Fold this protein.
Amino acid sequence: MSINKVFITGNLTRDPELRETASGFQVLNFGVAVNDRRKNQQTQQWEDYANFVDCTMFGSRAASVSRFLGKGSKVAIEGKLRWSQWEAQDGGKRSKLEVVVDEIEFMTSRDGGQQPQYQPQYQPQPQYQPQTADVYDDEIPF
């Protein structure tokens, strides 16, 4: 058994690129910068280091999602890792690891503003009021 599940949040490093295969299947490619926090051994200060992750989304959702994303948009992604390998024009072998997106959540709008977060409305539940009527009859047979 193996598990291939990825959860990342970060900002898009570039505008998404939407393309279509010859058969009409839509493919959306974009990059996400994900910070890693490490302690600098020389300064003893915590510093952020960026990791750049290529992401790909397939199908009809790819086109609709592309309209809401732009460089700098903050997203949360759930997906799986996929490794691909190919031969470059110079004859050298190339490979990369990317995230195939299953679910995406927009954490900011295309212009960078915060998306309104869902705020559940508190609705007090009616409290249970016990009945004050007598439960027992005056005439108990025992």
User: Anything to note?
Assistant: Strands lie at 6-12, 17-20, 26-39, 46-58, 74-87, 93-106.
